[in-house]
Amino acid sequence: MKTIRTAILGTGFMGRVHLEAVQRVESVEAAAIFGRNDDATARLAAAFSVPKASSDYRELFRDPAIDAVDICTPNAQHFSMAKEALQAGKHVLCEKPLTTTVAEAEELVTLAARSKLRNCVCHNLRYYPQVQQMRALREAGELGEILVVQGTYSQDWLLYDTDWNWRVDAKAAGASRAMADIGSHFFDMAEHVTGLRVSSLCADLQTFHKTRKQPKGSVETFANKMMRPEDYVETPVDTEDFGAVVFRMGDRTRGAMTASQVSAVLTSILANCALVAIKATLLYCSTAFSGSPSDSMAIYNLGCKRNPLRNPRRGDAGAFARSNTQAAYYPLKRILSTVAYGK
Fold this sequence. Notes:
The longest helix has 18 residues, at 324-341. This protein has ten helices and 15 strands. The chain has helices spanning 13-22, 38-47, 57-62, 78-87, 102-115, 129-139, 170-173, 178-194, 266-273, 324-341; strands at residues 4-9, 28-34, 52-54, 68-71, 91-95, 119-122, 146-155, 198-206, 211-215, 232-236, 242-249, 253-260, 276-280, 285-290, 296-304. The protein has a seven-stranded mixed β-sheet with strand order 8-11-12-7-15-14-13.
């Protein structure tokens, strides 16, 4: 099988996660890394034995030896990078969101189809083993009709007005934050598990911190917790900290969910106490999944008409949750293998 030589675009938190994951995928080589800072990019490349480091991503797009690019930069850069990569004949794996507007996303879909190239979005949570188990139960008919889909995705890393990240800035991340950043994971997983599509919704979005203290220098995701008052600048914020959504899937299924980046740390403790559970009632059963990185909690429930515990062939709801790096491994393996095999 041909080795897929891949360029990683981005050297921040998610860029390193993808870099580690790519190096664990069979027949995939991390051939190059792009970053804005020459020294930091060179250090990261040396640490992971990546042969090429560059501060010019277009240089990598012009390299005929590069087969695919993995985009892990801030959201506002996704569209232009993905478009140029496709035009250069490269397959694309992009961190969510693919773009920050529907029109841009549709343009990329059309371009990829015309170019006969892969143009993929990395919604990694669907490849957690327990999520795959839930989908398998549904596909086997063991859950019956899905009646209700409920969930929460709660984080605490932006709880205080001193917490800052590029995702807070609409110019870098797009108009939505909590719903686009973590709510999108919920809806992707809900559709993936149930096989249904969201047909309509009603959302309530709230920005609790109208201003935040932005560090004068750049900071990494989940960092900047030890800065001093003189290191900040008061900055207006118009992206949401919290969102609540009621929605419909298909003709009959109903759902409700919340996404928060300002929920206190107790949620982290609860998330690490219970990874997988199946609970049953007399008439309906609920398949529940809880598990996520240490800063957050994600719980998903499916209300359905059958109890999978009555089937002796199904004794377990799935394996334990993987780390961020392990979770990224599954979609990268699945997506990049389709590039190699041409499926």
